[in-house]
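[User] Could I get a sequence and structure tokens?

[Assistant]
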Amino acid sequence: MAPSSRSRLEAAAQLLLLVVMSGVSRAAPPRVPAVIVFGDSTVDTGNNNQIPTTLRADFPPYGRDMPGGPRATGRFGNGRLPPDFISEAFGLPPLVPAYLDPAYGIDDFARGVCFASAGTGIDNATAGVLSVIPLWKEVEYYREYQRRLRAHAGAARARAIVRGALHVVSIGTNDFLENYFLLATGRFAQFTVPEFEDFLVAGARRFLARIHRLGARRVTFAGLAAIGCLPLERTTNVLRGGGCVEEYNEVARSYNAKVEAMVRGLRDEFPRLKLAYISVYDNFANLIANPAKFGLENVEEGCCATGKFEMGYMCGGGAALTCDDADKFLFWDAFHPTEKVNRLMANHTLEVCYQQGLL
């Protein structure tokens, strides 16, 4: 079958298979010494377990489909997250450890580390809503990590690990859905929607420039998904007939266009920075529009509990209602994708990395 007859996600899955299995076009996975992760619950592998917040996923049925059996690691899903699959594709450990997890040490972090915190955002005020780790603190942990890495491996090796690592960034949804549109902070009164988009894009730019100054050379930055189509948003839209909240999707598209332009500008400004924008929106829209192509049967509700509004502790309370086969669902809870979809997103990220010369 010609590549043009496959969807982008299907083609990405084939590419990942070639990488991992040492297929025809590539002799071995590219040399990536580590995967380093920043962001929110889409990539948090367990940091929130170690902080005093109610936004946690360290209990069943989270982690129900983890390799080796059920294990609630703090990942917001039924299994692994995109960075885990990306790490595995490079021949690195199949689980990227959370930096605050006491079960791991610097020897583990030398091959992969996650600083992400569920519920955080680009706007520092977003992290305050549920008392999670702000993005500036994630950067401070990154600096601390580098000091520990230098003491562990020596300055030259530490520098090589950081510069050779793939830095994965996924953040921004909470800034809109948890902060701005919920009136949880004063941002709604302070900014119009376009102004808040600009505020966030400027914050994202400062963050990317800062980690570049700290040594990051290969970075992926994910745009927003179709946030108006999350099960929680569909449920709250019931008074208007249900379905996706198109107002929110339009915001996501507008914001994403600004992020993409910002990424192009940073690439021009920092020639040594290999920075790729990951279009999550288009892939989610494809899954929603063509579920059968991906073996999905339900793209409107989550697998956990009723699937309409539950997340975190509410998901645990409704465990008895949870679906039997999460692979048939786009969403695990009312906010987060299933492991199957996370694998597809990882495949797409790798595809973009190859196309744009990061790997």
